[in-house]
Structures are given as C-alpha cells and as structure tokens.
C-alpha cells in the first residue's frame, strides 16, 4: 500500500512538471474552427485562459464562435488554398501577438472529397484536397515559424487516424501521410530552437461537413464524367 501511494505521488509530481502555467498572454492559433474538433478546441482553450486566435473558413463560422466565447478570443477568415488569404492571416496573428511570439499553432483541416478509384480521378481532384490539407497547412506553418521560435512555442498537427490507411484513391490519405512526414522532419529541425512539434492522431469523429451523402454524391459525379470505355471496364455492378 505504501509503495502504491509513493508511486502515485511520484507520478503526480512528474506529470505536473509538464503542466503549462501562467496561461494569460499565451497566444494559440488554431485553423479549421468553423465546426468540429477545431471549434471545440478553440472554446476549451479560451475557457482555460489562453489568448485564442481562431481561423474560420466562413464569416458565419467566425460569428457563431465569437458569440459563445470570451472577448479575448479573436477570429480571422482563412482559405488554406489561397496564399493571399494565408498571408493576411499571418499578418493578423503577428499584430495580435504584439511581439510576444506565438505559443501554439494547432493545424486542423479536413479536405476530403472527392474520393474514388484512382483512374476515375483527374489531377485537379488531388489538388482540391492537397492544396488545403497538406500544402496549405505547410505554407502557414512555414510563415509562422519565426513567431513560434520567438516564443519557443509548439506545433500540434491534428491528423485523422483514418488517413493512415490507404483504402481508397484520392488526396485524403496522401495529405495525412504527408503531414506525418512534414511533422517528423520539422520536429527534429526545430528542437534546436526550443520549438516542440507534436502529432495527435485522433479518432473517428462525425463531421458536419463530411458525411456519406456527400461522398456518394461525388462518386456519382465522378462516374458520370467517365469515358464510356472506363465505365464499361468497371460495369454498373461495380458502382
């Protein structure tokens, strides 16, 4: 019994060494905050006392988030497929941090559709996913690295575990595997500057913007634009 109590005390002491303290003034920038995991995380960190800067793809998402958060939470519109939008968001974050640097960058973006057999797809179908969920996240990370280095902050990349299993064609799995590789190399390189890089492979959450009806709609769209030769090679039964 005494050994168990002693082990528990040691565990709590070690755990508390990693607890972040003095949260006031620590800025965290989160992408993908319109709905889902990014939205919930922005609200939770706001309640904890962080200075949250939430990036939303729509003005509606920004307004709804501000309505249920404290006045310290700020929002900025962000289209990860647009370099100009990324540049404007970086300027906004720089202004909000006011020389203190960025304590945290949480990258959360889900460009999913279209998915389907690889030879049903065109290169623009890959771009529609990769430009958001891989290249866009990489671009905004690169542009925020000076602020992260200044605060000796951390990068947290949220990656859906579904993306680690390549069971269907398209850019979804490519984007997740790409973010894994980018995070692993960035972690090694940023260690010299005191910047931490983490991956959170989260589970299977239901997202409002992605459901079976949307995936089915895209599948039929892909099928209908195929040449007769490719459709005949698969057949209606396959569809």
Automatic annotation (TrEMBL):
GO molecular function: oxidoreductase activity
UniProt record, GO biological process: steroid metabolic process
Top-rank lineage group of the source organism: Eukaryota
SUPFAM superfamilies referenced in this protein's UniProt entry, alphabetically: NAD(P)-binding Rossmann-fold domains
One Pfam family hit: adh_short
Family: Belongs to the short-chain dehydrogenases/reductases (SDR) family.
Protein name as annotated: RDH7 dehydrogenase
């Amino acid at each position: 019994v005494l050994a168990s109590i002693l082990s528990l005390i040691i565990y709590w002491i070690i755990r508390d060494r990693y607890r972040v303290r003095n949260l006031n003034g620590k800025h965290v920038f989160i992408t993908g905050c319109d709905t889902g995991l990014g939205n919930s995380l922005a609200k939770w960190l706001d309640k904890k006392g962080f200075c949250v800067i939430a990036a939303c793809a729509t003005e509606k998402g920004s307004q709804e988030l501000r309505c249920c958060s404290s006045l310290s939470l700020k929002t900025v519109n962000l289209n990860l497929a647009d370099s100009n939008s990324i540049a404007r968001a970086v300027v906004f974050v720089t202004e909000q941090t006011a020389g203190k640097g960025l304590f945290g960058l949480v990258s959360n973006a889900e460009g999913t559709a279209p998915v389907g057999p690889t030879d049903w797809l065109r290169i623009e179908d890959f771009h529609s996913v990769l430009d958001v969920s891989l290249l866009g996240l990489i671009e905004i990370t690169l542009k925020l690295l000076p602020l992260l280095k200044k605060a000796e902050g951390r990068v947290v990349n949220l990656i859906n575990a579904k993306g680690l299993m390549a069971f269907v064609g398209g850019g979804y799995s490519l984007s997740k595997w790409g973010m894994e590789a980018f995070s692993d190399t960035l972690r090694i390189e940023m260690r010299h500057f005191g910047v931490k890089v983490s991956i959170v492979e989260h589970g299977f959450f239901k997202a409002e913007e992605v459901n079976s009806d949307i995936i089915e709609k895209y599948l039929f769209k892909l099928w209908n634009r195929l040449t007769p030769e490719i459709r005949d090679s698969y057949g209606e039964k396959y569809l």
